[in-house]
Write a structure and sequence with these properties.
Layout lengths: L1 H15 L29 H6 L3 H4 L3 H4 L43 E4 L6 E5 L8 E6 L4 E7 L6 E8 L6 E5 L8 E6 L2 E5 L10 E4 L5 E7 L8 E6 L6 E5 L11 E4 L8 E3 L8 E6 L10 E7 L8 E7 L4 E7 L8 E6 L10 E8 L5 E3 L3 E3 L6 E4 L8 E6 L2 E5 L11 E4 L4 E7 L8 E6 L4 E5 L3
Antiparallel strand pairs: 1-29, 2-3, 3-4, 4-5, 6-7, 7-8, 8-9, 10-11, 11-12, 12-13, 14-15, 15-16, 16-17, 18-19, 19-20, 20-21, 20-22, 23-24, 24-25, 25-26, 27-28, 28-29
This protein binds calcium ion (4 copies).
The site of one calcium ion has 8 residues, from strand 20.
Length: 457
């Protein structure tokens, strides 16, 4: 039974992610990547931003929007951070020290090839300064860690972490409170956690979920205790569940609290949306196998405590298959906004898909802005001010490479421009990967398992 469930999950996924089946034409299906955390998580914690001395301008808007994390990471929870995206932003631009806004990248460096590279997550989990790259590889059910070598525009593959069946969805966030992000990953029937001591990762600890298979996972302090929790989406085909594993300052407890939520959700995110100091969750839902589509996005406002996790749920309808989401402050009001990237009714159908910004107002409510067409079969997006004009931009993986939709600080996005003609990309992440002032871009070319880094120049 388990196997059947997993298989059906894989089958539906395979249509999305070409890399699951090497025999399948890579063409359009591939883009969808998957993982829970994707892009640049690095900002989330202070230690990392200190390693990027200069991010003040390029990351104009502070922790969540700035480095463009798409990721769940920023989440873990300082409860003090009530306005999710810090307000220092404003578009005061010195254009990263350049005379005018500039969107220019060197030819990509290739740091890995083989397997599949469906998800890309950035976080400084290892000792050497600078965000490391965590690659989710569903073809081998593993994570691959590329260590950033001293911000010298160089990465080395230093570890592979085998996960067991269907493992490919990582999350990063600080589980121990030492200021360094730790790592978690959902696998077929449970979740792994690894703790970073600031230098290296511990051995993995595995906890079994109550339901399976699992999908996306996130590390976030949703209970207001001293330590963050690990939240996993499970049972995607029969009504989603979220399972909250209580934080214990090292690993997590073995008994999860199960709450309704999510449905085929490869990426959840966490952010403080309503100013109460408890981190909230943003959880897409989709199921292309349903006759009645359930495409949408739920905001789960944390209302519980460390002993009894509870959420108030706000539900929003989205366009078809809201596969990838990212957060940032697109209208510069200091409230976190959400970027949703759709895959359309049928991945690889050749019909143009879209992204959409949802503006937060500090209460947890989200207001939909107009959808903007871009590419086909969108993967995981990222957010960051790539052209250094002081306003965050949307960066989107697709079956036709990577697009940018520039923001203007009002919440609107300009029409899509192709940024990199990189083939079928499943995931894109943005971060300060070298020692300059400008954001760099990591692209996962899904079916070829290739990781490319485009350094701003
Ligand atoms: Ca909250
Ligand atoms: Ca905002
Ligand atoms: Ca910009
Ligand atoms: Ca850079």
């Amino acid at each position: 039974m388990k196997n059947t469930l997993r298989l059906s999950t894989l089958v539906s996924l395979a249509s999305l992610v070409a890399c699951f089946d090497p025999n399948e034409p890579i063409v359009l299906g591939g883009a969808s990547d998957s993982s829970g955390t994707t892009s640049a998580s690095e900002t989330e914690d202070g230690s990392q931003s200190s390693s990027n001395p200069t991010d003040s301008t390029s990351t104009s808007s502070g922790p969540s929007s700035a480095t463009g994390d798409t990721t769940s990471a920023d989440v873990t929870g300082d409860s003090s951070d009530t306005s999710p995206t810090s307000a220092e932003s404003t578009g005061s631009a010195d254009y990263c020290g350049l005379p005018e806004p500039t969107l220019s990248f060197a030819e990509p460096e290739v740091y890995m090839q083989g397997g599949s590279a469906v998800s890309i997550t950035l976080a400084d989990i290892l000792g050497s300064p600078g965000p490391d790259i965590i690659v989710g590889d569903p073809s081998e059910s593993q994570l691959i860690i590329l260590e950033n070598n001293e911000l010298l525009a160089d990465f080395t593959v230093v570890a592979t972490l085998p996960l067991g069946p269907d493992g490919w969805l990582p999350a990063v966030g600080d589980l121990t409170g030492n200021g360094r992000p730790d790592l978690a990953a959902a696998t077929g029937d449970g979740v792994w956690t690894w703790i970073s001591d600031g230098d290296q990762l511990s051995d993995g600890q595995f906890q079994t979920t109550t339901h399976d298979p699992t999908w996306g996972t996130v590390i976030a302090n949703v209970g207001g205790s001293a330590f963050a929790e690990v939240i996993v989406q499970t049972n995607p085909g029969e009504g989603g569940r979220l399972e909250v594993f209580p934080g214990q300052g090292g690993g997590v407890g073995s008994t999860p609290t199960v709450v309704p939520g999510g449905r085929r959700t490869p990426r959840m995110l966490a952010a403080e949306l309503d100013g109460d100091g408890l981190v909230d969750l943003i959880v897409p839902r989709t199921d292309s196998e349903q006759e009645t589509r359930i495409d949408g996005m739920d905001v789960l406002l944390s209302r519980g405590n460390a002993d009894a996790f509870d959420f108030e749920v706000l539900s929003f309808e989205t366009g078809p298959t809201p596969w990838g989401i990212a957060i940032g402050d697109f209208n510069e009001d200091s409230f976190t906004d959400v970027l949703v990237a759709h895959q359309g009714a049928s991945p690889g159908d050749g019909i143009v898909d879209s992204v959409q910004v949802w503006l937060g107002d500090g209460t947890g409510d989200l207001a939909a802005q107009p959808e903007v067409d871009v590419g086909d079969t969108l993967g995981f997006p990222a957010v960051g001010d790539l052209d250094c004009d002081g306003h965050v931009d949307a960066v989107v993986a697709s079956a036709q490479g990577v697009y940018i939709l520039r923001g203007d600080g009002t919440g609107a996005l300009a029409p899509a421009e192709q940024l990199f003609d990189a083939g079928v990309t499943g995931s894109v992440a943005v971060g300060q990967l070298d020692a300059d002032d400008r954001l760099d871009v990591v692209v996962g070319i899904a079916p070829e398992g290739r990781v490319e880094v485009y350094y701003a120049d």
